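Protein Record: Sequence and Backbone Structure Tokens
======================================================
Tokens: labelled as protein backbone structure tokens, with as many entries as the chain has residues.
Question of interest: how does this chain fold, as expressed in backbone structure tokens?

___
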Amino acid sequence: HEVILFEAANEPGGQVRIAAELLRRKEIIGIVDWRVAEAERAGAIMRFNSYAEVSEVLAENPDIVIVATGGLPNTGFLDEGEALVTTSWDILTGAVKAAEHVMLYDDNGAHQGMMAAEAMAQAGARVDLVTPERIVAPLLGGMNHPAYMRAFKKHKVTITLNERLIAVRRDGNKLAAVLYNEYANTKEERRYDQVVVEHGTLPVDDL
């Protein structure tokens, strides 16, 4: 097949490239490098910085269009305070620096939240990892769990289970994070300099 790739970013890799920002996992960028090399070897045309709209796609007169536009961080789960939170992507890409005292709220249960927590702790932040799960990051698997736990112990990351973040409010120069415990049906507020959330992604389906 004659293949043309429209890539919105200036380099390939998407979320894999973000994942490789953590020093301990930088080798996974090899996944991207190998796939790009194989695509070039097979004759694929890759156009970067190309945010394709309908007109650009139709101009190629394609026989088949594959839409693989990925996702963006989901911050719309909060009752209030969506504009006040930072995402794990912001932290891992360096778009936002970690504050002094940070809550990392992980309702995804995979690498993303754990990586952001580790990165912030390594940068010197005091990190509280909060999750509504009964265990930390249930999607990680046993092989990856120890490395994060070792890093969390080294950098004094605290862990709170069974608490769901439902709202974030301004409180002076702090952020008040409202947590809900589904088992006890109770709420509490904790104050932080920054609230970082990892709640999975929502599809980019505008096209």
Remarks:
- The two ends are 23 Å apart (CA to CA).
- The mean pLDDT is 94.
